[in-house]
Amino acid sequence: MRQRILVTAALAASVALTLSACAPSAPPASTSTASAGSDTLTIATTTDVVNYNPLIGNSRSDYWITNLMYPHLLSIADDGKKEPALATDWGYVDATTGFYEIRDDLTWSDGEPVTAEDVAWTMNAVKKDAPSGTFYGQLGNFESATAVSDTRVEVKLTQADSSIIEEIGFWGNVVPKHVFEKAASVADFPNDGSDGGWVGAGPFTLTKVQVGQSYELDRVEDYPMVEGGTPIPAKVVYRVFPDVNTEILALQSGEVDVIANALPPAQVDQLKNSSGIEVEEVVGLGYAHMTYNMQNPDLAKLEVRQALAHAVDYDAIRTVVLQGQAVSTGSSPLMPVLSDYYDDSLTEYEFDTDKARSLMEEAGYTADSSGNFPVSFRLIYSLQDSVTSQWAQLVKDSAAKAGITIELQGTERNTYLAQTNAGDFDIYAGNFAIMDDPVTNFTLAYLPGGAINYTYVDDPALNELIAQGAVTSDTDEKIQIMRDAAKIVHDNVYDNIMYTQNLYFAHSDKWDGFITKPSELLSIVNPESLASAHKAE
Prior knowledge:
- The chain is α+β, with helices and mostly antiparallel strands.
- The chain has helices at 60-67, 116-129, 134-137, 164-171, 177-180, 244-253, 265-272, 302-310, 314-321, 353-362, 386-401, 413-422, 438-446, 460-471, 475-491, 527-532; strands spanning 40-45, 74-76, 82-84, 87-94, 97-102, 142-147, 152-157, 204-210, 214-219, 235-240, 258-259, 277-282, 287-292, 326-327, 376-382, 405-411, 427-432, 496-501, 503-508, 511-512, 534-535.
- Helix 8 runs antiparallel to helix 10 and helix 14 runs antiparallel to helix 15 (475-491).
- The chain has a 6-stranded mixed sheet.
């Protein structure tokens, strides 16, 4: 597997960063009178856990379950702005020094206090050992972290970076130093509970695993980050089902109480009108997209990427597959929900098969007597992603009208992730749940070595703009820089953004008290939500 290492361009310019970021207000407290009881909350998922180590992560189930045990410094609001979690305050001391102030009332499940030393050690270990995953991908300008007191961490940067403190705080879990330091490398530490169980500091702790069947977590009695100080459900059990349709049947029969993954759009209205089921709408901070692997000589040609972009019927995908529950981003990686950054002057690639044919001819290809060009592209997608599975077929069909052959290769999700990381595809089809900070997202997606640079783009002009955005603290200036960067991505088809959408999640009406957070990763299965969930009054 190709190891991706985040590379960021160094700039000589210095910048005065905001000295302190005041923590936004926490969400209003629940008015429920429910108290901790003996109930078990059963949640459906379609994937097993691949990694119990939250510093690695792979499948959605990894994230959902380890998030219940290993805290984040920051949470997120519906507009992408960060909110307090373990950290109560954060910001910058100077251009190359950031800080976090953390709570002093949280303990690990073995009784040890959670301190700034755990936070600093976690960051330093991830930087040193480079585990695969988003956390390491955020650390391009990170040099080191130091616990200057039990509740304060200071972070030294290799250069000014106006996004890194919030992004590390949001994406990185904190792990117990006294447990993880026993491993030679956090990148290889399985954290599989084999040495006496799991030690966490969330509302629940994993206690029983039956691979292919279920994952059982028990309540942590002392959890001050939820109203009342104790999670309400006594247990949370994730059960594994083969697909979302089976999950829906299990919810309807009462076999499970919640479905963790987003509902297929075609099922939303039906479930809204189903007796015994509640459907919650969650803000989407992500997008669905296709990327074209420019390591393939054919896809390295701009005209071919443009032809493929013009051979997609975007309206049909959003109308037929998404049931009208998705909107265009103008084929831009800056989504409308990020209202400060969104640039409506960028327009969606027009669906025009004749134009696609002309572009293929400009690229030097001649169609045969059947009207087909002598190229074929392999498109990978996850079979567990029912929405992408459907629109991938529409992409294949519309491309065929332009004489372009697309071979679909749907696989089990973990195989798909391995193919993605290895660059084993011509076209990648998928989605990202949270694209919250433009500079960070562009760094990961479009810089050489970026953790999700699936196009393998290396554009000097784009690299320079991303680097400028990273060190610019003036909001208006940063917005213009990132809009210019988005135009390069758009015009060169370095990414084909299909749509963004709000998501819908179903649960039994016998349960109440869920707290929504944006994206499928957080939705109604975030730690605060599951700790607050209770039987309906």
